[in-house]
């Protein structure tokens, strides 16, 4: 447990941060450090486990590669934030309480809701029972155990988005005796420019990945996947990366949510229905000029920092500022020795510029490794985390134009 923040009196302003992913950790470190000298502020971080989940590396964990164990309490040490380990089982936005593990209750004055997404294993029959996913380290380790015992056979990776591509490449490189099949509605690299997409597909081909685009999986069975139309593909292991879903807790709490269950926010990241709740990362439906943001680490961390600075401003009697963010890249690993980086416009459409090969590998690793040292820098210099592309004209909402 970390040092307690604040005076411990009943008048302390209680800020509870739910989730310690990329966005939640950014919010926690920023807010705790910025309010450390405020004797009337108490910051509490709630997460299901003490180990920080590097979601950008879960495809490596899934192939048996050992990664550093990053401790959430360790990075919070010295900030004054309090860490509570447990599962969030309910939120009552009207009485301002959070229930942990069904028997502990935390009261808050301001809530930062950062319970992000997990793989959507409920939409297709059989996925929940017969497929693996990469929502947590534990799930990735289960797949690693299975792959390590296969000794060949077919591994089906369902979903041709970035997670599916990275996973298929990693499995094919790590287990060359296995036949890896990548199944998806779109061609891999569909959001990239022609050069980057061609490079990505060629790399998958060199690794021996069989790509089946334009297909949809209708059912997962113990030893196969069934496609819409009836075709069956035998598979000794299935990895599901097709689609994500958010926790139903926000909707159950009475917060205004969109059709996907994400908390709808105003321009400052406050819930439109409960202004004492801020939503960040994948859990939030944040509208910019180009549309609603999609969940990525590059956008998640800025939302956490912005929520923290907004709360700090409100506590000082100031108004929070609008949040603006523009995308700038899409880095994709293709095994340990290859990668492609697509640079983007702020609306996430592809630019003409891309990196490939070893230079892209170095770039991708720099990006993947950057969050943890960034939190460390923010402990010493909070302002160092407040720089990101605002996106110019792309991010201005219609009301601001």
The parts where pLDDT drops under 50 for at least 5 residues are: 1-9
The count of DSSP E runs of length 2 or more, i.e. the number of strands, is 24
Describe the sheet with the most strands: 5 strands, parallel
The tally of helices reads: 11
Note down, in words, how this protein is organized.
This protein is of the alpha/beta class and 401 residues long. The strands form 8 sheets. It has a 5-stranded parallel beta sheet with strand order 3-2-1-7-18. It is 28% helix and 25% strand. The protein is built from 11 helices and 24 strands.
Offer a few descriptive terms.
disordered N terminus; alpha/beta
Secondary-structure blueprint:
Blueprint: E1 13-18, H1 22-34, E2 41-47, H2 58-61, H3 72-76, E3 82-85, E4 88-92, E5 97-100, E6 104-107, E7 110-113, E8 117-119, H4 127-130, H5 137-150, E9 154-158, H6 162-174, E10 179-184, H7 194-206, E11 210-213, E12 217-221, E13 224-227, E14 232-234, E15 237-240, E16 244-246, H8 249-252, E17 263-264, E18 277-279, E19 284-285, E20 287-288, E21 291-292, H9 297-315, E22 329-333, E23 339-344, E24 350-356, H10 357-369, H11 371-380
Parallel strand pairs: 1-2, 1-7, 2-3, 7-18, 9-10, 9-15, 10-11, 17-19
Antiparallel strand pairs: 4-5, 5-6, 8-16, 12-13, 13-14, 20-21, 22-23, 23-24
Helix pairs in contact: 1-9, 1-11
């Amino acid at each position: 447990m970390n040092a307690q923040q604040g005076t411990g009196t009943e008048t302390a302003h209680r800020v509870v941060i739910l989730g310690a992913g990329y966005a939640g950790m950014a919010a926690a470190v920023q807010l705790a450090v910025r309010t450390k000298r405020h004797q009337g502020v108490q910051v509490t971080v709630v997460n299901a486990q003490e180990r920080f989940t590097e979601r950008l590396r879960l495809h490596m964990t899934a192939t048996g590669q050992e990664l550093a164990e990053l401790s959430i309490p360790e990075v919070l040490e010295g900030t004054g934030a309090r860490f509570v380990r447990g599962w969030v089982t309910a939120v009552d936005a009207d009485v301002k309480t959070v229930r942990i593990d069904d028997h502990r209750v935390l009261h808050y004055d301001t809530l930062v809701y950062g319970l992000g997404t997990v793989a959507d294993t409920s939409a297709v029959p059989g996925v929940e029972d017969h497929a693996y996913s990469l929502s947590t380290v534990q799930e990735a380790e289960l797949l690693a155990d299975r792959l390590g015992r296969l000794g060949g056979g077919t591994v089906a990776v369902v979903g041709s988005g970035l997670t599916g591509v990275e996973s298929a490449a990693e499995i094919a490189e790590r287990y060359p005796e296995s036949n890896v099949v990548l199944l998806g509605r779109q061609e891999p690299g569909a959001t990239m420019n022609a050069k980057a997409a061609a490079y990505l597909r060629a790399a998958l081909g060199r690794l021996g990945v069989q790509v089946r685009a334009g297909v949809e999986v209708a059912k997962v069975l113990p030893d196969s996947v069934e496609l819409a139309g009836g075709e069956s593909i035998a598979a000794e292991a299935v990895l599901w990366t097709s689609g994500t879903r958010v926790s139903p807790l926000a909707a159950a709490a009475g917060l205004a949510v969109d059709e996907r269950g994400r908390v709808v926010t105003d321009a400052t990241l406050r819930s439109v229905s409960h202004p004492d709740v801020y939503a960040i990362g994948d859990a939030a439906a944040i509208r910019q000029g180009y549309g609603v943001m999609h969940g990525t680490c590059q956008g998640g961390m800025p939302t956490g920092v912005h929520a923290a600075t907004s709360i700090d401003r409100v506590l000082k009697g100031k108004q929070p500022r609008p949040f603006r963010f523009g995308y700038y890249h899409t880095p994709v690993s293709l095994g340990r020795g290859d990668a492609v980086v697509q640079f983007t416009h702020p609306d996430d459409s592809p630019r003409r510029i891309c990196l490939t090969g070893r230079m892209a590998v170095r770039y991708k690793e720099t990006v993947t490794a950057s969050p943890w040292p960034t939190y460390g820098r923010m402990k010493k210099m909070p302002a160092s985390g407040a720089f990101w592309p605002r996106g110019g004209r792309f991010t201005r909402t219609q009301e601001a134009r």
